[in-house]
Specification:
Layout: H1 19-33, E1 39-40, H2 47-52, H3 59-62, E2 66-67, E3 71-74, H4 78-90, E4 94-98, E5 111-112, E6 120-124, E7 131-134, E8 139-143, H5 148-158, E9 162-163, H6 174-180, H7 187-190, E10 197-203, E11 209-210, H8 212-215, H9 217-222, E12 233-240, E13 242-243, E14 248-255, H10 261-271, E15 279-289, E16 295-305, H11 309-319, E17 330-333, H12 335-344, E18 363-371, H13 377-389, E19 396-401, H14 405-408, E20 424-432, H15 439-454, H16 485-496, H17 500-510, H18 531-534
Parallel strand pairs: 3-6, 4-6
Antiparallel strand pairs: 1-3, 2-5, 7-8, 8-12, 9-13, 10-11, 10-12, 14-16, 14-17, 15-16, 15-19, 18-20, 19-20
Helix pairs in contact: 1-4
Bound molecules: flavin-adenine dinucleotide and 2-acetamido-2-deoxy-beta-D-glucopyranose (NAG) (4 copies).
The site of one 2-acetamido-2-deoxy-beta-D-glucopyranose (NAG) has 5 residues, from helix 1.
């Protein structure tokens, strides 16, 4: 069987031609910018390499139910973004912005194919990626097309004692990540990325370039957690930098079921959200085979301590003796070195943070839940059994501790609402190769089964989910049908809890015609809405 990926480069990527609107766009854009060289049509030789340059999930390129962009615009200045918005509207094309291309449902470079699909343009802003650091004011301006790795690297080039709280994966883009939340190893101490954004530049639906003052506080509030895709195009964020010591300590401690993994994870659930905020321990669990060939679960306690080893050891002994942390498990390094070590377990030069190439050439599906009460040992055993029985489903379970600063910030402070009461986030992550037809549907079905199975263990009413771990199975907007606020609340309340209504009102103010639409963009709510919508 020929792997589908091998034929990717030819026929599969050709988009449905929609010449008239595309032609009108090209004329308009060229007239406005005099830069036709920034445009890539599907029938030109560079289109595929530009399209694939940041794609992390092959699923949407291979899926017969997805469409690809009719054109890619590779913007190198804010004026190109302005022209793209104005010309796309004038040509009745839709727009999807792409920064780092890590969207879990491919929404920056593909769309759900339906009877009323409108052709769309992908506005790729990966060239807009400069970072400027001011160590005395402890701030950075970072353009949205930069990756987290580029931001981290730029900070470390200037100082060894400042950092930024965001995700662990260095190829993730600032544009999507910072506006959707941003959780990682500094979150317990400093909050999510959204809690550390102080200003932004955004181009709105009328092509105006706005900052915090000119866009209005309600829109600036929405951009901190609800993503930006439904509101405009982010050009840059101004962020606060946070203090880290010159040396931090990292460790990975592995346990299998025979090594009491279940007991230690059970204990971790009670403790991890209450540890000293300098101590971050996440749990990564996968089905594995033991030395004697029997099935087991391998658990890794993947950790960062903001301080020296000699302080960590007594702290770990006192607050989490069940882990059995030893001096030989601990490695001291600078914060910048810890980024790739925590993510990959490899000690590599920090220059690797600048590598933007996609890490994988496979497909994945992920989803998330929040956990409010520790799962009993018997419950963990049921979950392990579920994972071990599915031998063709190499699920990775990632438990990310909350608490600390995350519990202090109010749910309505910014759009990201997952605060006090959550002890950890659980992410389900499954990767596969599409070697034959039907493989993907089988994996997706198993993931849905897993989510049903997990229901008793996780938050409910609403069953909360993290927007940056976008999951289309929660519900979606259908193109050509106006989605009511009420219908969208089914998934909107999961991502945004009590903030969803205000998000829809902001959308109604800044994009009343819903130009910035995607399958999970915030719906428009204007006036007071209907009586039922008030409830
Ligand atoms: C391997 C991997 C590891 C990850 N690790 C973490 C982690 O540790 N912590 C965490 O919190 N999250 C993590 N994520 C999730 C990540 O935060 C989200 O997928 C994020 O939205 C990706 O942003 P992006 O710019 O790379 O993606 P894109 O696909 O470019 O964009 C994502 C969404 O944002 C929109 N968008 C992008 N840029 C802009 C812009 N400039 N203006 C307006 N809208 C825009 C897109 O249209 C799309 O809807 C991870 C994802 C992957 C694939
Ligand atoms: C995908 O990547 C793997 C590992 O990096 C490699 O062995 C394989 O050949 C690649 N497959 C394709 C189809 O590119
Ligand atoms: C590519 O497509 C565009 C628009 O659809 C068309 O104008 C152009 O002639 C095509 N070019 C080639 C080389 O086929
Ligand atoms: C080109 O732009 C000018 C103003 O910049 C405008 O007057 C003119 O109508 C435009 N032409 C086309 C074909 O869009
Ligand atoms: C597992 O726990 C049991 C009982 O609590 C203990 O006797 C045993 O030493 C532990 N095993 C390991 C490998 O820590």
């Amino acid at each position: 069987m020929v792997p589908l990926l091998l034929i990717l480069s030819s026929s599969l990527l050709i988009s449905p031609t929609s010449s008239a609107p595309v032609h009108s766009f090209i004329q308009c854009f060229t007239n406005q910018t005099n830069s036709p060289n920034l445009l890539y049509l599907p029938n030109t030789s560079y289109f595929n390499s530009v399209l694939l340059s940041s794609v992390q999930n092959q699923r949407f390129l291979l899926s017969p139910s997805s469409t690809k962009p009719s054109l890619i615009v590779s913007a190198t200045s804010a004026s190109h973004v302005q022209a793209t918005i104005i010309c796309a509207r004038a040509s009745s094309l839709r727009l999807r912005t792409r920064s780092g291309g890590h969207d879990y449902e491919g929404m920056s470079y593909s769309a759900f194919k339906g009877p009323n699909s409108t052709p769309f343009i992908t506005l790729d802003i990966s060239a807009l990626r400069s970072v400027s650091i001011d160590t005395s004011l402890k701030i950075a301006w970072v353009q949205a097309g930069a990756t987290l790795g580029e931001l981290y690297y730029a900070i470390a080039q200037n100082t060894k004692t400042l950092a930024f709280p965001a995700g662990l994966c260095s190829t993730v883009g600032v544009g999507g990540h910072l506006s959707g939340g941003g959780i990682g190893s500094l979150t317990r101490k400093y909050g999510a990325s959204v809690d550390n954004i102080v200003d932004a530049w955004l181009v709105d639906v009328n092509g105006r370039l706005l900052n915090r003052k000119t866009m209005g506080e309600d829109l600036f509030w929405a951009l901190r957690g609800a993503g930006s895709a439904g509101y405009g195009v982010i050009i840059a964020f101004k962020v606060n930098l946070v203090a880290v010591p010159p040396k931090v300590t990292t460790f990975n401690v592995d346990k299998t079921l025979r090594q009491n993994a279940t007991k230690v994870v059970a204990r971790w659930q009670e403790l991890a959200h209450q540890f000293d905020v300098n101590l971050y321990i996440r749990v990564i669990a996968q089905a594995d085979t033991d030395a004697d060939g029997s099935k087991t679960i391998q658990v890794t306690f993947n950790s960062l301590y903001l301080g020296r080893k000699e302080e960590l050891l007594p702290l770990a002994q006192q607050s989490f003796p069940e882990l059995g942390l030893k001096a030989t498990d601990c490695i001291e390094m600078s914060w910048i070195e810890s980024i790739l070590f925590l993510y990959s377990g490899a000690r590599v030069p920090p220059e690797m943070l600048l590598d933007r190439n996609p890490e994988f050439n496979s497909s994945f599906k992920a989803a998330s839940d929040f956990v409010k009460h520790p799962i009993a040992e018997s419950g963990l055993e049921e979950i392990w059994k579920f994972m071990m029985e599915a031998k063709d489903e190499p699920l990775v379970l990632i438990l990310d501790p909350m608490g600390g600063r995350m519990s202090e910030i109010k749910e309505e402070a910014v759009a990201f609402p997952h605060r006090n009461g959550n002890i950890y986030n659980v992410q389900y992550f499954l990767r596969w190769f599409e070697t034959e037809e039907g493989v993907t549907e089988k994996h997706l079905e198993w993931m849905r089964k897993l989510q049903r199975f997990m229901a008793p263990y996780v938050s409910s009413k609403p069953r909360a989910a993290y927007y940056n771990y976008k999951d289309i199975d929660l519900g979606r907007n259908v193109e050509g049908k106006e989605t009511s606020y009420l219908a969208a609340r089914i998934w909107g309340a999961k991502y945004f809890k009590g903030n969803f209504r205000r998000l829809a009102k902001v959308k109604g103010r800044v994009d009343p015609e819903n130009f910035f639409w995607n399958e999970q963009s915030i719906p428009v709510l204007q006036g007071f809405g209907s009586l039922r919508e008030l409830l």
